[in-house]
Amino acid sequence: MNFFGRQVKILIKQLSIEDLRVKFNVEKSLVGYPNKANIQIYNMSVSSRQEIEEENIEVKLHAGYENPPLLFSGNIVNVLHQKQGVDWITTLYCGDAIKDINDSIINKTLAPGATTETIFNELVESMEGVTKGITKGLTNCISGKQSLLRSLQLTGNVKDWLKKIADE
After folding, report:
1. Helix H segments across 19-68?
2. At CA 71, angle to CA 65 and CA 75, rounded to 5?
3. Whole-prediction pTM value?
4. SS3 content of the chain, % helix, strand, coil (to 5)
5. Minimal CA–CA distance to 81: which of 92, 71, 70, 68?
6. Mind listing the domains of the chain with CATH numbers?
7. Nearest of 138, 121, 139 to residue 130 by alpha carbon
């Protein structure tokens, strides 16, 4: 779409959507939650709508002026198609690294003396496709606050372990 120099480009699988009406909202989170995007695409063809029905399809949203930058990259969590008057509106509910966060499993033993920060770093490193962001504000929360008296077996879903650390 080109409106007063504005451009939007959405990449989903082999689809490149540029000339359709698009509305979107991207929410960036600094604490504990994946970034989210809700993208509405108007009047996609039936075959295109069917092609994006699979779970966890990667989506990239570019928007801006002249060679628009990447605003969002993530996975489709849910797709909703609605007929509104003469328009078909496809709404994509997306989250970044959702698949990596939900599906990451860890199986590792940490030695006695490991700190909360060490546990946190091990958990983040075990999530393929997820990188540790800026944790400067967390330093007082996790650095050296507690250390293990015994070894710890980290087994199971990484998201559950991260939640457990956050709750303590």
Report:
1. 46-51
2. 140
3. 0.70
4. 25, 40, 35
5. 92
6. 2-99 (2.30.300.10), 104-167 (no CATH)
7. 121
